[in-house]
Amino acid sequence: MYISTRGNHERVTASRAIKMGMVPSGGLFVPESIPTITLEELINLQNSSYQEIAEKILSLYLDDYSIDEIKDCVNSAYNEKNFDHPFMAPIYKLNEHTYVLELWHGPTAAFKDMALQIMPYFLSLAIKKVGADKEIVILVATSGDTGKAALEGFKNIPGIQIIVFFPYQGVSKVQELQMTTTDGKNTYVVAVKGNFDDCQSAVKEIFANEEFNDILNDKGYELSSANSINWGRLLPQVIYYFSAYLNLLKEREIQPGEKVNFVVPTGNFGNILAGWYAYKMGLPVNKLICASNENKVLTDFFQTGIYDRNREFKQTNSPSMDILVSSNLERFLFEQTNHNADKIKQWMNDLNTKGKFIIDKETKSSIDQILVSGFATQEETLETIKKVYQSKNYTLDTHTAVAVKVYYEYLRETKDKTKTVIDATASPFKFNSSVLEAIKGAEAVDNKDEFAILEELSEVSGLPIHHGLKDLDKKPVIHKIFCTKEGIKKEIMKILGI
After folding, report:
1. Does 263 score more than 90 pLDDT?
2. Which position among 112, 287, 405, 430 bears the catalytic label?
3. Is 71 a domain residue?
4. Cys-Cys crosslink for 94: which of 49, 98, 171, 367, Cβ 3.0 to 4.6 Å?
5. Is the pLDDT of residue 143 over 90?
6. Selection from 290, 299, 293 nearest residue 314 by Cα
7. CA of 302: how far to CAs of 306, 361, 375, 491, in Å?
8. pTM greater than 0.85 (yes/no)
């Protein structure tokens, strides 16, 4: 069963939590208790395929889905048609104790595919299970990657409309074209004059607006979410932490029960939170290392215990992390305070009204036992790409480079030689201008369009252009809607013909 982080909703089944997306009056659903996997069970899984690992993890959380239903969801999502690598999330060995977990082999070249290829199947089943009689409208706020992954996952699924909001000029050109060229009878993309936090805050407010939801219901619509505020989006991300560990075990890179570190480039805190759930389930984790860019609200929070979004918002060369309000932190704090909904309500209210909150020493101490943090500047990000390319002949994207730089710093400060896995959250081709600039210098990208740069990066890196990005410039731009952050609600009504 699933409960609200703010104690303001009855317990619900997995399917109801997935269909609702978030708690209507504010708050996020989390499992009432976290299932565990013993070391023996883990060892027995080491020769399993990604699909078999997925079935095992998902079945522990989705009580009201049958094993056959879970198998169907898994096989529909994780297959060679959707992913260009047989292991879905392969590991690349960088050196004796550092490994890169490549999470970008899905259709849109970003880690979001790992969850958004399977989530539509969860949601379609959830709609049937709870007997929903209304058309589902999925609202997505994206800082670049979630949007396309959600559009791709949900397009042409009966009974579902999907509307994606992205910050105008706040994503890379490739990311923008991935979204605006999406076909499908039920897909809508809106550029918002504002930043990602503006998009996300507006969408959250719409979910919590009872009057607006009543209007939608009267017209036969019901809202849901594909952002990581939806448990059905977060849960599949737990799988690849287990698959990474089992992969290392199988290759004899680690011994059974040996602890590993995970370094995660972090914006909305969903990816690293999935790693924390894996740890609580019994995965042998030493440290989770939270890596931020210059919008280092999380780094500052984990180092001081003060979350303060009252700061300049920076547009950086790792745009998917340009976020000042990390939604999934609420879940993490709820877990760290032993499900103290009153504390969460107070902190979230302070964040909403004052733009900041301060956690107590006990909670801070609990967090410090498992999590460390750091950040990288834009210059350091480019330097890291160049350094890894030159020394290892391996090409990082800008977000993964942030994680690598933060890990190098952690290693220098702690001398911790624990085997470490770095989450690679996007293909280098997704942020081709910055990556090519890092490798060849600023003059290499001057006055060149994105697609000439893609070709050159392919030559330089020796990698084929990711299939999801090829020939984007030849596709017609279908979605051309713009609005202000205040106009999002009106835009939804226009799209739905209300």
Report:
1. yes
2. 112
3. no
4. 98
5. no
6. 293
7. 8, 12, 11, 37
8. yes
CATH of the domain at 275: 3.40.50.1100
For the chain, percent of residues with pLDDT exceeding 70:
100
Per the model's pLDDT, the better-predicted residue between 31 and 473 turns out to be 31
Confidence at residue 361, expressed as pLDDT on a 0 to 100 scale:
97
Q: Is 112 a catalytic residue?
A: yes
What pLDDT was estimated at residue 309?
97
The tokens for 327 are: 């939604």
> What b-and-e string marks burial along 376-391, b requiring 16 or more CB atoms within 10 Å of the CB?
bbbebbbebbbbbbee
The residue segments making up the domain with residue 403 are 91-112+232-466
For the stretch 172-184, what's the b/e string if a residue is b when 16 or more beta carbons lie within 10 angstroms of its beta carbon? bbbbbbbbbbbee
Average pLDDT over residues 310-317: 95
Instruction: Calculate ∠ Cα 324-330-335, nearest 5°.
Output: 145
Amino acid identity, position 98:
T
Answer whether 480's CB lies under 8 Å from 184's CB: no
In a domain, 77, yes or no: no
Residues 6+ apart with CB under 8 A from 202: 141, 165, 192, 485, 488, 489
Q: Is residue 454 part of a domain?
A: yes
Say if CB 50 and CB 238 are below 8 A apart: no
CA angle 28, 31, 32 (to 5 degrees): 110
The CA distance from 103 to 424, in Å, is 6
Question: How many domains, in total, are found in the chain?
Answer: 1
